[in-house]
Write a structure and sequence with these properties.
The chain is of the alpha/beta class. It has 26 helices and 37 strands. The protein has a 7-stranded parallel β-sheet, sandwiched between helices. Strands 5-2-1-4-3-6 form a 6-stranded mixed β-sheet. A 6-stranded parallel β-sheet has the order 20-32-31-23-30-29, sandwiched between helices. The longest helix has 19 residues. The two termini are about 50 Å apart.
Length: about 800
Amino acid sequence: MANFINVILPIPLERLFTYSITEEESVLLQPGMRVAVPFGKSKIYTGLVHSIHQTPPQAYEAKEIHQLLDDYPIVKAVQLKHWEWISSYYMCTLGEVVRSALPGAFLLESETLVLRNLEYEVEEKELLDDEFLVYEALQHQSILKVQEVSAIVERKNVLPILERLLKKKVIVLKEEVYYQYKPKLVRYVKLGVAYTSDEKLEELLNSLSRAPKQSQVVLTLFQLQGSTRKPIKVTDLEKSSNSSKAIIKSLVDKEILEEYFIKTDRVVYDGTSDTSESKDLNEYQESALVDIKAAFAKKKVTLLKGITSSGKTEVYVKLIEECLEKGLQALYLLPEIALTTQLISRLQEYFGDKIAIYHSKYNVQERVEVWQNVLLAKPKAQLVIGARSALYLPFSKLGLVIIDEEHESSFKQFDPAPRYHARDAAIVLGNLHNAGVLLGSATPSVESYHNAQTGKYGYAEITRRYGNVMLPEMELVDIKEAARKKRMKGHFSERLLLEMEETLSEGDQIILFQNRRGFAPLLECLTCGHTPQCPNCDVSLTYHQFRNQLRCHYCSHHTALPKICFACGSPDLDTKGFGTEQIEKEVVGLFPDAKVGRMDLDTTRGKHGYEKIITAFEQQELDILVGTQMLTKGLDFRNVNLVGVMNADSLLNFPDYRAHERTYQLLTQVSGRAGRTKKRGKVIIQTYNPFHQILKQVTNSDYEGMYAEQLYEREQFKYPPVSRIIKVTFKHKNYNVLNEAADWFAGALRANFGGTVLGPEYPPVARIRNQYLKHIMVKVQKVQSLAQTKANIKRIETSFKAISMYRSVRVIYNVDHV
């Protein structure tokens, strides 16, 4: 009986592919193992085994697999189930989920090698010049890579040349699979076997009396071996004996020393093995913990609403402790890498080396090691802390999932597919493992709070700050009035400057929040009003003074700062608006003695970018920190006494149904960074409209008022949580084709769903990277079946793709668009 496997390929194709396997392979293979399989004419891909069966494919003849890549499954069955849910719910292919989920080093790729065809006599006269160059190179070198062919003929696209040579039977092509992951091997040394006895060692030292440096190395090694029973690293021996690599190498060559390698993890916890006891909870935290456990007992997802600095982390620690004591794994999801860096040091005090960290700033090799540790349920990966991608890890016994700052939009992936929401996907993951799922936030999203109010989620609340510290005093400053009376210094009101002087004089720290990076969003000609635009996107270029250039924040196009206007040649150029760079410059001018730092996407690009800035601020090496919304996400700074919001209106006036909810969350979170210890903090919010309802709700900490108002509006206009939203985006480089395609699709949707279809409409930035965009929004009401709606949309897409003119238009689905 023939055996077959269904394989998931990491490419955006809807279906699984069937390959034939031998009887022996069918015994070895299990779902979740990787196999290298041929696909198309010559490519080899890494496929993930989905199922093993004996049904041959109907439409094509099954090819044989290329090779087995694993001895055991690297993906669990429950994980595959979770990925299938992500694929069907977020309307993407299983291959896209696999590509997103697996660390890149697991997806082995093949490289095309060019070899000379030895079975064919070549007529050199028949070859064209570029073909002859390749043929000549193969006379001297048996194998060429495609890049090398490209260098030889000095052309980027060499496929036409290779195709011509194939037709003339001059070359053959071969695919070679190469591995990206290499384990980290550390060099260790020990005394050679011949010198382990005391007599032999004495003889050796006598023989080395004329080589004092070599003698010193041997003596140091002997001492180190006596004082520690651990293996001795070459680097440690070099340092302790004050010698060089060359001396140790010559001893190894003489076989006096013996070197060997031990495989080690790249990310190692570098603390002591002692861990401290977790803190005792106060009565408010204790009562919240009781409520959470009661909801977990009923198998309910639970929302913990605790005001900023109420000690939610300590409650999480108690739950994690209990989970690890039962021998289960815990997952702690955070929206921002900046948060993980600060939280890790806090949690290491309690859990020592049981912690594994997983996020995109780790390189491919490090991520593979974390994956393997979680897969094998090693002690060093009992608690996994990470950003949204951590929920893809191969947990086998997950007991607890914590999603901190659950309201954050960073939990939603926008590009590429799968466009999943980590909060919702983590809830499904927790349910698949029968694990407790806890959502935590000081300002929960309207959807989560609605679920708690209607009894779908369990609910717990902490209403007091830890240590009964008072919430910061909040003040709205009318900058329209201040500007009219000429009482502004740059972008600072008198009131904010006064408070800053007072805070600095008392030795406390300040955070200034401005949600735009760069120096200024516009450069404008004062003569003709022209503003430089990005050539690839419909957006003006942002001026970055630090690099003295204009940059596009969508496609990273940049150009040097022009001396004259491109349109009229006038030298009178001025900037409009302001970003974090400009605020930083103004602060340095206003407070020359203060140490000022800036935290935005430009200053945190490196692997340890976040860590350096946060550590410097925690250790009070900086007095003032200027930053974007990275600063708002749950960071805990002990000595911040003043928070200044430079302009609240830019948040409020954003064209989005969530703008008011987001503004409330952002301003409340940034305010929560102030006065977290003994002294009551202060928050100054600068605005042109101090009477705005949301700003009043922020100053009064009136979450319930904001929630009731937002829910009423969303009920009127059928937005979440009352209904669900599927956003369909169309992308194409031709403006007219895009318009026609979007209109056709919208017409088909309206015929199916009637008045709940909005659009097609251009977004605020309607062209990015030379691709035009258009959106359609489908509102799916609670009475409609979401699965049926998706199936109908997919059916419409099939008809859409059948029209040859629209085949090149890219259709992107974003379910639960945030």
